[in-house]
DNA sequence: CTGAAAGCGCTTACAG
DNA sequence: CTGAAAGCGCTTACAG
């Protein structure tokens, strides 16, 4: 990138920075003494410490972050790379909620979040490597783990503090936020089963994600064990695909009496498709969204949804990271999930 | 924060870093020569430059970000503070879309985004000040400007590169992404007027925002000039308040025949309230959402919405910032907005 | 074109 | 308890 120095200068004003040398001079001590004083370390008498601190405040001194980093101080920043397509990030409210949760815990502790979007897993890994090499982040959060995820392998190899959200890996430097996807799926299917449904369809998100595979397994197992006929159809989080899937399912000679969608956007797309087809919810078919939101509460009919609270998930992930960095035992609270029963589910005809 | 050194160490492995001194030694030159070589500056012959570069690659050298920052190099990072309540950020899809747009432009140019949430405007300002003092960011993006916004005043006073999204300030260091809120509001009201509506209500977002005030002004002016009766009701982006506002409006002896909501979440809340009241959309009342989304497209009826594409807005903001930092003339392309007509608007009874 | 050296702002052994 | 000095990894005048 070429910086043209000729054009109108917008360089932040180069106010000469106040350094510990300035303080040292004013206080009549050495810069080393200032360092001890401001860092609360022994090496200066209480009287001089107080005097130094006064001067520092008077001069509005702030430590140079760059110099401290050069001396090996932590960046106090956590990295998060989002590697889903731009459209998905812009539609799925999950990301905004998750980030909000992460932020709220981080900023309480003075940490900040470094965020970047990546086109694919490979570039996500290289972003992580750059951050690590630059010392820009103290640790990273990994979302949407896959089976034997290459990012987690790379990060574990670098022995870099990592929290895998919805993963299962546990090493010295890598911890996971455990999310019971199978249990949540059972919650949903049991709810439908209890209502009397025996033909259930599941429209999935991206099947290469580990958490989606867990859901699929739990779905299949429950159906088999309980004599329920279950269809599983790939959806990929795309509402257009969810619409097609819904049409195909209802055109079947043996249509399902209940539909489960892997995301709110997909569930809404499915509901709208049913309306177009003249299929009544819940009279003709019941519908469940995996992911709750205000929208689910205000739609008509309101949507029965699995509420797992992405904000809390973000908070847990951030808290685990902070504990990992502080060498504290990492508490891994269960991620609560509950089915919120609303109007879109009822006994089948 | 206490760091306990006793527990299991999760410090990133302290691999001794490869420095320019290492390269210098291997290549038989001074570290100054290495610096010239790797930075493409004159001062070394082509032959030595090539040799040095070879050694650098061989040793997998990467410049120390901290050292470079200490020498005054840019952080290549842009800051963004979100100071709306956590719930709003977690519900309004605007933020995720805007951030996605910002990211896509920034990451193409090797810049990253520093994100933080703040409880209020005052702490937003202090976050900015910290970032600036730490040299963590080269410039900042400001969202939701208010009239005579204190953040913008502070940033302008610091002469720090700033892009105000939806603002109007233009100084040497502060530029704005101009958003024609009044024009967009006219688009909406003209659409309703053309359909024959003469009693229109507008449920607003947070009225302390400059862009909301612009919308309100344009709404009032259009109504007055065209003999339309217009109600304006404060909504504050809260769906519960939007519901109450909707109920109050429809309970009026002179209920409006069309409703305009300042956000998608509010519009959906409004629509659901209408359904509860047994008011048909669009037969009894028309409805417009300021903010388009997939959800608007799949609801039943589909929602007529103002589409202003928050992703593009983010891209424009990021592009302006990069131009400002590069001392290039800042292009300020108009932010396109269009009304997408769907099923929720029709002529009144 | 090249080399030796000072400096960015801090921290931390190491002697007194 | 205190002071003088080296060092973190780079950049950049300043002499040759």
TrEMBL record, chains A, B:
Record's keyword terms, sorted: DNA-binding, Transcription, Transcription regulation
PROSITE patterns: HTH_LACI_1, HTH_LACI_2
GO molecular function: DNA binding
Superkingdom of the source species: Bacteria
Keyword hit for Manganese: no
Residue span, HTH lacI-type domain: 18-72
Coiled-coil residue windows: none
CDD domains per UniProt: HTH_LacI, PBP1_LacI_sugar_binding-like
Protein name: LacI family DNA-binding transcriptional regulator
Natural source organism: Luethyella okanaganae
């Amino acid at each position: 990138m070429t910086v043209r120095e000729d054009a109108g200068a917008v360089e932040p004003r180069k106010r000469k920075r106040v350094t510990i040398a300035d303080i040292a001079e004013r206080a009549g001590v050495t810069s080393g003494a200032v360092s001890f004083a401001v860092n609360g370390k022994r090496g200066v008498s209480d009287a001089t410490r107080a005097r130094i601190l006064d001067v520092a405040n008077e001069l509005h001194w702030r430590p140079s972050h760059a110099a401290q980093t050069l001396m090996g101080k932590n960046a106090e920043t956590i990295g998060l790379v989002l590697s889903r397509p731009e459209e998905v990030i812009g539609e799925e409210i999950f990301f905004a909620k998750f980030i909000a949760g992460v932020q709220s815990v981080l900023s309480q502790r003075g940490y900040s979040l470094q965020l970047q979007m990546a086109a694919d897993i490979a570039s996500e890994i290289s972003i992580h490597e750059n951050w690590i090499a630059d010392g820009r982040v103290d640790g990273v959060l990994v979302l949407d783990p896959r089976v034997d995820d290459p990012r987690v392998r790379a990060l574990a190899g670098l022995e870099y503090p990592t929290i895998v959200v919805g993963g299962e890996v546990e090493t010295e430097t890598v911890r996971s936020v455990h999310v019971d996807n199978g249990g949540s799926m059972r919650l949903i299917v049991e709810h439908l089963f209890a209502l009397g449904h025996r033909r259930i369809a599941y429209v999935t998100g991206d099947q290469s994600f580990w958490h989606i595979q867990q859901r699929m397994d739990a779905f299949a197992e429950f159906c088999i064990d309980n004599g329920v006929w279950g269809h599983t159809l790939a959806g990929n989080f795309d509402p257009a695909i969810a619409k097609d899937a819904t049409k195909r399912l209802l055109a079947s000679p043996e249509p399902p009496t209940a539909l489960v969608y892997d995301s709110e956007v997909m569930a809404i797309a499915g509901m709208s498709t049913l309306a177009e087809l003249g299929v009544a919810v819940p009279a003709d078919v019941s519908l469940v969204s995996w992911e709750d939101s205000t929208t689910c509460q205000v739609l008509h009919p309101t949507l029965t949804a699995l509420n797992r609270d992405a904000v809390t998930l973000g908070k847990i992930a951030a808290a685990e990271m902070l504990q990992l960095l502080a060498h504290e035992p990492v508490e891994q609270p269960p991620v609560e999930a509950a089915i919120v029963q609303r109007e879109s589910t009822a006994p089948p005809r």
